[in-house]
Amino acid sequence: MTEYRWLLPAVMLGEQREERVGVRRSTRDWIVDIAVFLLAAGLGLLTALQLGSDTVTSPLVVVSDQVVVADQVTGAAACAMVWLRRRWPVGLALALLPVSLLSVVAAGPICVALFTVAVHRPFPYVALTGGLHLVTLVPFLWWRPDPELPFWANLALSVMIYIVLIAWGMFVRARRQLVLSLRDRAERAEVEAELRVERARHLERERIAREMHDVLAHRLSLLSVHAGALEYRSDMAQDEVAGAAGVIRAGAHQALQDLREVIGVLRLGAEGTTPDRPQPTLADLAGLVEESRRAGMEVTLDMRVGDPAGAPARLGRNAYRITQEGLTNARKHAADAPVGVTVAGGPGDGLTLEIRNRVTSGQAIPGSGTGLIGLTERAELMGGRLRYGKGTDGRFLLSAWLPWPA
C-alpha cells in the first residue's frame, strides 16, 4: 500500500478565513470548503483503488476484503466530517483519532483537521491534537505498513509531513493576526486623525468667536455712540444728523458683513477652503484710533515702535484686538473721558500696550467683563500677560505685554 498522506498539504493552499459560530459562510468560504472536500475525497478514492489492488499483510492481520470495505466506509465518513472543521476544529481532530488507527482513506480528512486546528486555535490545542495524532502513527504503520518503504523511514516521513503541516497552519494564523493588528492600528490612526481634525476645527471656531466678539463689540459700540447723539441732541444740524445716520448705516452694514463671513466659515466646517480676509496688523492701530475719533471719542495714540509694519502678523493682530476691545470698553464706561493709548517695545523686548481712561459711568452694562476675560486668554495663548483695574492715578488701566521674538 502506497502512503498518500504526504500529498495533503497542497489541499489547504486556499485556506485563509475562519468561520465563526453563527456566521454564514461567504462565497469564498464555500469555494475553499468545496475544494478541500473534493481534494480529500479524491485522495481517499485513489487510496481506495490502491487498497483494492494490494494484498498486504502485517505481523498481526491480513488486509482482507472486509477490512478494505471498512476502511473505505470509515474514510468516506471522515471526508463528510470535514464540513464541521470550521465550527468544531478541535472536536473534529479528536474525533478522527480512532479513525486514524484504522483507515488509510481518512488520511486526507486528518490532515485537513490538523491544519484547521493550527490555523484557528492557540498553540496548546495544536500541541494536544498534533501530539495525539503523531502517537497514533506508530500502531497504524505497524498494522498497515507501506510495502515500498521500511517501517522507520515511513514513520519519519509521516512525522515530518505532520510537523510541516502544523507549522504551515501556525504560520497562516500568525500572518492573519499580524494583518488584523495592522488593520486595527490603521483604523485607530484614522480615528485619531479625525479627532485631531475635529479638535482643530473646534479651536478654529473658538478663535473665530473671539474675533467676532471683538469686531462686533467695537462696531456696535460706535453705533451706540452715534445713536445716543441723535437721541439726546435735538439741536443738531441737518448735515450732522445725516452724517451720524450715514455712520450708523455703514457700521450696521459692515457688522452684518462680518457676521455673514463668520457664519459662512462655520457652515463650511472642515471642508471649507475659503481663505481668511486680511487680518489687522500693528500698523493699523492708527486707523482704529482715527475711527474712534470720528465717533466722537478723544483718543491720543503714543506709538513708540520704530517700524509697526515690521511686527509679526500674530503679534500685530493680537495687539490690534486688545486695543479695539480697550476702546470699546472706554466708550461703554467713559464715553466723554479722554483715552490714552501707549504702544512701546521692539524685537526681543516684547510689546507693551497700555490704555488709560477715567471711569464716568456707574451703570452696570450687560456682558461687562466678558471681553476682558477673552483678552486675557488671547494674551496667555501668545505667552504674554494682561492686567486691568484702577491704576495709581485713579484711572482705569488696561496693560498687556506680548512677546516679540528677536
Explained architecture:
With 406 residues, this protein is of the alpha+beta class. Helices cover 61% and strands 9% of the residues. A five-stranded mixed beta sheet has the order 1-2-3-5-4, with helices on one face. Strand 2 and strand 3 form a beta hairpin. The chain crosses the membrane at residues 30-51, 92-118, 125-143, 149-171. InterPro entries: HATPase_C_sf, Sensor_HK_TwoCompSys, Sig_transdc_His_kin_sub3_dim/P. This is histidine kinase. GO terms for molecular function: kinase activity.
Number of helices: 11
Morphology call: rod-shaped
Derived structural class: alpha+beta
According to DSSP, the number of beta strands is: 5
Describe the main β-sheet briefly.
Answer: 5 strands, mixed
Organism: Streptosporangium fragile
Pfam families: HisKA_3
Protein name: histidine kinase
GO molecular function: kinase activity
Concise synopsis of the structure shown:
The protein has 406 residues and is α+β, with helices and mostly antiparallel strands. It contains eleven helices and five strands.
Helix and strand topology:
Layout (H helix, E strand, L loop, with lengths): L26 H27 L11 H17 L7 H7 L1 H4 L6 H14 L2 H21 L7 H82 L5 H31 L16 H10 L4 E6 L8 H21 L5 E8 L3 E8 L12 H12 L3 E6 L5 E7 L4
Parallel strand pairs: 1-2
Antiparallel strand pairs: 2-3, 3-5, 4-5
Helix pairs in contact: 1-2, 1-5, 2-5, 3-5, 5-7, 6-7, 7-8, 7-10, 9-10, 10-11
Write out key terms for the chains shown.
406 residues, alpha+beta, Heat Shock Protein 90, 2 domains, five-stranded mixed beta sheet, 11 helices, 5 strands, rod-shaped, disordered N terminus
